[in-house]
UniProtKB/TrEMBL annotation:
One of its GO terms (molecular function) is DNA-binding transcription factor activity. It comes from Brassica napus (Rape). The keyword ATP-binding does not apply. Keywords: Nucleus, Transcription, Transcription regulation. Signal peptide: none annotated. PANTHER family: MYB FAMILY TRANSCRIPTION FACTOR-RELATED (PTHR43952), PROTEIN RADIALIS-LIKE 4 (PTHR43952:SF106). It comes from the Eukaryota. InterPro entries: Homeodomain-like_sf (IPR009057), RADIALIS-like (IPR044636), SANT/Myb (IPR001005). This is (rape) hypothetical protein. Gene3D superfamilies: Homeodomain-like. Its main location: nucleus. One of its GO terms (cellular component) is nucleus.
Amino acid sequence: MLFRGTTVLEALPGAQTRHGQLNKTSSFYQKKKQDKQFEVALATYDKDTPDRWQNVARAVGGKSAEEVKSHYELLIRDVNDIESGRYPQPRYRNTN
């Protein structure tokens, strides 16, 4: 599973995100594992947990508290943009 708001292309090493940041993940599978660790850590350490971002960073591994907090804030902005209709629903080809 990718971080919400991330496409498969953006998960590739060196790919540019729509927010202009370069993804420096060494492999798609490493990213997938980190995504799951991030998801579990967010469920484990809610907004009322002291030192939430330090705990999330430790659970993900290889990221600082500032990096995981920044990523979370980016995801929240993406969700808000999607829910507000700023990004149209994708149109899929009819395969029938």
